[in-house]
């Protein structure tokens, strides 16, 4: 039998790659083995952003809201101070700081330099600039990390085996058509297993909403959940909804919002998740590790009219609103030239 390796695809890939990318784009000094004097580790930055993403946008599980609120109240001020300090230094002592920080975690990337320069040129109040930066970081961090993890888990389920085989073939091709189809599998996977289950809203007046063949009477002050996850399984909008079709028109999806609540990074998210899936499913004979470590352990709760929200159990059996670990195995004995691995900490099994 060949040799195999293990990788925690959530801890080491999906919860890290998007955060490292964000840090580079926004000029946040990361603490890594290569830059040990940075301000925050990728995990610390993730735990600042994710509670903000969930609590400010999709707080559907009432019993988890107090944890999210506490985490958001702890992380937001730290992030605000960090970004404000970076902006102020960039605006006042840029030539000196560029020289002093070269080659360190504090060096400003060209992308962050353009961002800072453009924001400061607007002459808007500092608090407003910082809020705008955090507001654009939150949805990218929240969607790219959690949703990619859910997609990997989905396509490793036995009922989706035929789609996994197709994804593996696409992952090992480098043409435009293959990548576009892979991106289609991202949107179809999000339709089946989305990170955003619905949008919580509160009615400002009495009204009647037509919902399919029924009418829903809503009173002012009543809490609603707009079930986007249910809408994506509606056979009227998606014929044969249980079948995955990566060639469906993108305009059919409302996965990333609609109208004034449309995610500004929608096109980026699909492309970025497809890029991560491409590298992950290149791993030879990718499969779940044996036992609990190779699956998500979830507690489900009906939050509204059949919309099931999930809390994930970590290694200490704590209930968390996001997955923290998923250990997979892959064959590691083919020649190195035939194996393309995403950057990760791999351990011999």
From TrEMBL:
<dbReference type="GO" id="GO:0020037">
    <property type="term" value="F:heme binding"/>
</dbReference>
<dbReference type="InterPro" id="IPR001128">
    <property type="entry name" value="Cyt_P450"/>
</dbReference>
<dbReference type="GO" id="GO:0005506">
    <property type="term" value="F:iron ion binding"/>
</dbReference>
<dbReference type="Pfam" id="PF00067">
    <property type="entry name" value="p450"/>
</dbReference>
<dbReference type="GO" id="GO:0004497">
    <property type="term" value="F:monooxygenase activity"/>
</dbReference>
<dbReference type="GO" id="GO:0016705">
    <property type="term" value="F:oxidoreductase activity, acting on paired donors, with incorporation or reduction of molecular oxygen"/>
</dbReference>
<protein>
    <recommendedName>
        <fullName>Cytochrome P450</fullName>
    </recommendedName>
</protein>
<comment type="similarity">
    <text>Belongs to the cytochrome P450 family.</text>
</comment>
<dbReference type="InterPro" id="IPR036396">
    <property type="entry name" value="Cyt_P450_sf"/>
</dbReference>
């Amino acid at each position: 039998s060949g040799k195999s390796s293990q990788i925690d695809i959530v801890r080491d890939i999906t919860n890290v790659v998007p955060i490292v990318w964000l840090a580079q784009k926004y000029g946040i000094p990361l603490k890594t083995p290569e830059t040990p004097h940075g301000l925050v580790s990728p995990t610390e930055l993730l735990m600042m952003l994710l509670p903000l993403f969930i609590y400010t946008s999709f707080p559907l599980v009432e019993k988890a809201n107090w944890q999210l609120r506490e985490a958001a109240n702890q992380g937001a001020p730290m992030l605000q101070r960090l970004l404000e300090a970076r902006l102020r230094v960039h605006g006042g002592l840029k030539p000196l700081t560029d020289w002093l920080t070269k080659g360190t975690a504090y060096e400003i990337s060209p992308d962050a330099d353009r961002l800072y320069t453009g924001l400061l040129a607007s002459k808007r109040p500092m608090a407003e600039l910082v809020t705008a930066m955090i507001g654009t970081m939150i949805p990218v961090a929240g969607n790219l990390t959690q949703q990619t993890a859910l997609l990997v888990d989905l396509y490793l389920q036995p009922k989706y085996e035929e789609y996994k085989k197709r994804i593996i073939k696409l992952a090992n091709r480098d043409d435009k058509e293959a990548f576009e189809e892979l991106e289609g599998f991202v949107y179809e996977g999000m339709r089946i297993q989305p990170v955003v289950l619905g949008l919580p809203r509160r009615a400002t007046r009495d009204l009647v909403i037509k919902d399919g063949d029924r009418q829903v009477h809503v009173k002012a002050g009543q809490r609603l959940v707009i079930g986007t996850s249910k809408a994506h399984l509606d056979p009227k909008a998606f014929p044969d909804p249980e079948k995955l079709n990566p060639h469906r028109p993108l305009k059919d999806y409302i996965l990333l919002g609609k109208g004034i609540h449309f995610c500004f990074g929608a096109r980026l998210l699909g492309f970025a998740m497809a890029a991560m899936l491409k590298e992950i499913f290149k791993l030879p004979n990718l499969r779940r590790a044996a036992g609990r470590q190779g699956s998500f352990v979830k507690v489900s709760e009906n939050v509204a009219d059949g919309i099931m929200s999930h809390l994930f159990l970590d290694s200490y059996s704590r209930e968390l609103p996001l997955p923290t670990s998923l250990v997979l195995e892959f064959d590691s004995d083919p020649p190195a030239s035939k194996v393309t691995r995403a950057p990760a900490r791999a351990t011999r099994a």
